[in-house]
């Protein structure tokens, strides 16, 4: 098991958004998270990266790193925890004052202080992987949404995380640009990356996931292989949700 | 009576001659005092403003509260009074400072407070997603601030800070009241001798206008340079 999460809880003010969630992510597996709006999907993903500080939760990684959010984690532990995963945002959040290449090199070069030549080689290979090597000197505003998101993926990969997190990576995109981003994610899946993806693209979820997790109201209602959760859910709530997405009236 | 005298002198020298003759002393006042005072006070002021803005944004009260009090005190009191406190006030209680350094201190403190509000607002205007993206690639607060937030905030704050700068150029004329022989004091000195107030003060106004106009050209160039990453 790459990561085991036990008893993850998160409240905003007095609203409990994640209610004692247990979760396991296996090395090389792809977990997709689905569920209605407001069910806590984004919050769950953000807790996996400490962008949102969990109120409670014990995180155990395969290499022995253990973080218990019931106590205040130490700063260096938290940095280690953050660098375990790369985050891809719904709204890309590229650095507008940096070129595509600089966006990608910023983490390894400035934060991780890795060797310059190696970083540039890595960054170029990542931009190549997402099909944007020829755009490396362009600024984000000169790129389409789909291209920006692909740079966002390269930027997240550049810190060489062990887990990739995606929060609805295609939902801000025009429909004709969705495919190019999903293709990049599928390529990563084929390379054996460990990923957690929040998505409304059920067809995509069915194709790439090893496990699908359905959330509602801060709970994990149901999880299992895509064929089961998406095609033959056990829970009534899951069934209704999938019905609604598949046949919107 | 006065009018007669004025006409007499103007007729004596000729208006044009007075204009030309007083031009050089005023420009000298500008070069020796107005411009250096503006540049030095602005440089100190902006540095102070940056520190103050970051203190005000801090979650620690022992940093944010002093910054707040400083800004509030400066903004709530007239510039001229601040100038008099530094020069005459401090002088009286034994900290005699020359006119020019006094002016630098007072104007730096003044700019520091006003510009800190501009800088704070521009930092706050950068979307939260930028902080978060910086965090996910492993940056801490100060690194994110320096490398991601401030460069973007700088672009946002150039137009309002240019206004602060241009106001400062004009405000330095107040330094004439603590005996700094800057541009406007030169105009006053000559006017005291010739009584040709209209001509000399319009001339002074004209010189300030030229300085501010040249500055606005510089502002445009800086904005264009920083615009390379913003869509137009
Ligand atoms: N920073 C915040 N402060 C207060 N409440 C928040 C905050 N972030 C999220 N919430 C609340 O937490 C709940 C879960 O939000 P979350 O964004 O995790 O849902 P989601 O499943 O990602 O929804 P969507 O599909 O619309 O993106 C919502 O009720 C939301 O209003
Ligand atoms: Mg969400």
UniProtKB/TrEMBL annotation, chain A:
Residue ranges of every copy of the ABC transporter domain listed in the record: 3-242
GO molecular function, one term: ATP hydrolysis activity
GO CC, alphabetical: plasma membrane
Source organism phylogeny: Bacteria, Bacillati, Bacillota, Bacilli, Bacillales
Keywords associated with the record: ATP-binding, Cell membrane, Membrane, Nucleotide-binding, Transport
Topological relation to the membrane, as annotated: Peripheral membrane protein
Record's protein name: ATP-binding cassette domain-containing protein
UniProt-listed InterPro entries: AAA+_ATPase (IPR003593), ABC_ATPase_HisP-typ (IPR030679), ABC_transporter-like_ATP-bd (IPR003439), ABC_transporter-like_CS (IPR017871), MetN_ABC_transporter-like (IPR050086), P-loop_NTPase (IPR027417)
Organism encoding this protein: Salinibacillus xinjiangensis
UniProt-annotated location(s): Cell membrane
CDD domains the UniProt entry points to: ABC_HisP_GlnQ (cd03262)
Primary site of residence: membrane
Pfam family, one: ABC_tran
UniProtKB/TrEMBL annotation, chain B:
Keyword Chaperone tagged: no
Record GO terms (molecular function): L-cystine transmembrane transporter activity
Keywords: Amino-acid transport, Cell membrane, Membrane, Transmembrane, Transmembrane helix, Transport
Membrane topology of the entry: Multi-pass membrane protein
Segments crossing the lipid bilayer: 33-57, 69-90, 198-218
GO cellular component entries: ATP-binding cassette (ABC) transporter complex
InterPro entries hit by this protein: AA_ABC_transptr_permease_3TM (IPR010065), ArtM/GltK/GlnP/TcyL/YhdX-like (IPR043429), MetI-like (IPR000515), MetI-like_sf (IPR035906)
Gene3D superfamilies: MetI-like
Pfam families linked to this entry: BPD_transp_1
Record SUPFAM superfamilies: MetI-like
Subcellular location: Cell membrane
Location of the ABC transmembrane type-1 domain: 31-219
Entry similarity comment: Belongs to the binding-protein-dependent transport system permease family.
Protein name, UniProt field: ABC transporter permease subunit
């Amino acid at each position: 098991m790459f990561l085991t999460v036990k008893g993850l809880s998160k409240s905003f003010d007095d609203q409990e958004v994640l209610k004692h969630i247990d979760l396991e992510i296996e090395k090389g597996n792809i977990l997709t998270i689905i569920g209605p709006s407001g069910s806590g999907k984004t919050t769950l993903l953000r807790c996996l990266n400490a962008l949102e500080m969990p109120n409670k939760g014990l995180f155990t990684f395969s290499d022995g790193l253990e973080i218990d959010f019931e106590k205040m984690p130490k700063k260096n532990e938290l940095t280690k925890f953050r660098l375990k995963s790369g985050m891809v945002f719904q709204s890309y959040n590229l650095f507008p004052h940096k070129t595509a290449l600089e966006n990608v090199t910023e983490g390894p070069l400035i934060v991780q202080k890795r060797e310059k030549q190696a970083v540039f080689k890595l960054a170029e290979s990542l931009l190549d992987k997402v099909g944007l090597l020829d755009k490396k000197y362009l600024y984000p505003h000169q790129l389409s949404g789909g291209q920006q998101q692909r740079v966002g993926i390269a930027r997240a990969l550049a810190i060489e995380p062990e887990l990739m997190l995606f929060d609805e990576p295609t939902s801000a995109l025009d429909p004709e640009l969705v495919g190019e981003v999903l293709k990049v994610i599928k390529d990563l899946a084929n390379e054996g990356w460990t990923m957690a993806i929040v998505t409304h693209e059920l067809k995509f979820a069915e194709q790439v996931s090893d496990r699908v997790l359905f959330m509602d109201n801060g709970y994990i209602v149901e999880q299992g292989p895509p064929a089961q959760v998406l095609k033959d859910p056990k829970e009534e709530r899951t069934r209704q949700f999938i019905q609604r997405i598949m046949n919107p009236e | 009576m006065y009018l007669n005298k004025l006409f007499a002198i103007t007729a004596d020298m000729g208006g044009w001659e007075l204009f030309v003759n007083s031009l050089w002393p005023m420009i000298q006042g500008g070069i020796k005092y107005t411009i250096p005072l503006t540049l030095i006070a602005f440089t100190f002021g902006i540095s102070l403003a940056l520190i103050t803005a970051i203190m005000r944004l801090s979650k620690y009260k022992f940093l944010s509260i002093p910054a707040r009090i400083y800004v509030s005190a400066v903004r709530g009191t007239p510039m001229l009074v601040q100038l008099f406190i530094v020069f005459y006030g401090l002088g009286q209680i034994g900290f005699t400072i020359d006119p020019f350094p006094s002016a630098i201190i007072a104007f730096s403190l003044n700019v520091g407070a006003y510009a800190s509000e501009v800088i704070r607002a521009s930092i706050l205007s950068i979307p939260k997603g930028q902080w978060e993206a910086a965090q996910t690639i492993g940056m801490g607060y100060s690194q994110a601030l320096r490398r991601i937030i401030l460069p973007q905030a700088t672009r946002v704050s150039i137009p309002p800070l240019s206004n602060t700068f241009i106001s400062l150029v004009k405000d330095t004329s107040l330094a004439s009241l603590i005996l700094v022989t800057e541009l406007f004091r030169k105009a006053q000195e000559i006017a005291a001798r010739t009584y040709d107030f209209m001509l000399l003060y319009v001339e002074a106004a004209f010189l300030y206008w030229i300085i501010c106009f040249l500055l606005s050209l510089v502002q445009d160039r800086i904005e264009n340079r920083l615009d390379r990453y913003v869509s137009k």
